[in-house]
Structure formats: structure tokens, C-alpha cells
Amino acid sequence: MTVESVSVVLGRRIRRFRERVGMNQTQLAHKVLCSKSHVSDIELGNVIPKPDELQRMEAALDADGVLLELYDLLNLGVQESATVADAEHDALAMSVWESRLIHGLLQTPEYMRANMADGVRADRLDREVAIRLGRQKILSSLLDGWFVLDEAVLHRMYGGREVMRDQLARIEATAALPNIYVQVMPFTSTRHPGGDGPLSVIEYRDKPGIWFTEGPRSGRMSDDREEVLAAMSSLNLIRSAALTIHESVEFIRHVRETRYEHVA
Q1: pLDDT beyond 70 at 73
Q2: CB count, 10 Å around CB of 232?
Q3: Range with lowest mean pLDDT among 162-166, 220-224, 254-258
Q4: Range 6-76 has CATH code 1.10.260.40
Q5: For residues 154 and 252, is the Cβ–Cβ distance under 8 A?
């Protein structure tokens, strides 16, 4: 089993920013005031950069605070949107089961803020929203994205009726994209492994797929082939137990119209 640490994700993100601006390791080392080998160790995840080194990297790579965000995660020991965003980068296909809330890739900004208001520090809320919104760009490039949502998330109200109305309308619009499929797991369907909790599998064109669970204290990620196949098997069982795609869109529309459409 391979579980990626945030230090590995941080190193990979540094390399990606460096390559984006057309800088080699020697040039970055010159700006960071360190050796090329030190930059290499950081990018491999073997060494965690010091705060002053990371600040100089932020400035040299125009990283807009993303590297410092990931550094915060090293200290907190948790998995948040920046880590997941890196995993989703270059995804070819994605299969998701979510039972707690509307999945982040399907959320409106208003829903995001309402959902994160009590769990994210006020000084980090804008950054977390920006990262989550940035993640949504992957939807247009996926070969296919498959999202199965528990019925409960359609009724669990974040931000009031107007926010929920717009949120469900967003899901309906996203489900109309030719490469995106949305299903609803009704309360009446219980013979599936979804009770074990949310689950995602991401497949790539030129590297091993991964499975992960996303949460501030429960996040786990692995590219172990047997584990990925087992996770995909669970997701297939979950999909087969849910409403069909067409039934699901109609179900979401019905919930929106009957619960949220007439906003005072």
C-alpha cells in the first residue's frame, strides 16, 4: 500500500509550479538561496522546506499562497482541498460516492461557504473556497465523471432554501454535460456498501489510479492496485443500487421544486 504524505504532495506541487514558469532546479535554488540538491530533495518529498525557503519559493514561482496552504497541512496533519486538488490534477476519469454533503466538484460558492463556515478558520475560508472552485475545472476535461449522491445530501440544508435551490439547479446543469453522470441513492435502497462512507477512485492516462476518502481528519489515499480495484468494485455496486441517471435528474428536480423553489 502507498499512502501519499502531504510532504510528497507539496514537493510535487512545487515542481509543477517551477515547470509552469519555465524554471529549472538550479535557477530555483538560486532564488531560494539553497543548493540544487536541496530543491531536488524537497520536490521528491524527502525534505520539508523551512518557512523562509517556502516563502521565497512562493514569490519566485508566483504560487498565490498554495504552497503555504500545503505547508499548513503538514503542521495540522490533515487532508484538505489542496491535497485532493493535486490528486485530481490530470485525472482521466473519476467515480465518486458521497453521503455527507454535495460533492465539492458540484458545489456552488454559496454552498461551499455555508458548508465550511463552522469547520474552517475565518482567515482560511477564502483560500479554501478558491481551491475548491479551482478543482471544478477538471470537470470539463474528464473522459467521464460519475457522482453518486445519497438522498440525504439533497435535504441537508446549508445556507438556507435559496442556496439549496441554486445548488440543486447546479447539479442538474452539470448532469446535462455529456461526460458527467449523476445518480441519487434513495433512502429506500440499502443493499450496497455505501454505508462504509464516502469513496472516490481517480484514473489517469499514464500513471496508476488511486482511491481515497476525503475528510479533515479521516482522509486516506492509496495507489495500491488491489485496493483501487476493490474500491472500484464497491463503487460499481453502489452505482447499481442507485436510481438510474434519468431517474436521478428527475428526482433532484422534484426535490428542488417541492422543497426550495418557492423562496420567501
Answers
A1: no
A2: 16
A3: 220-224
A4: yes
A5: yes
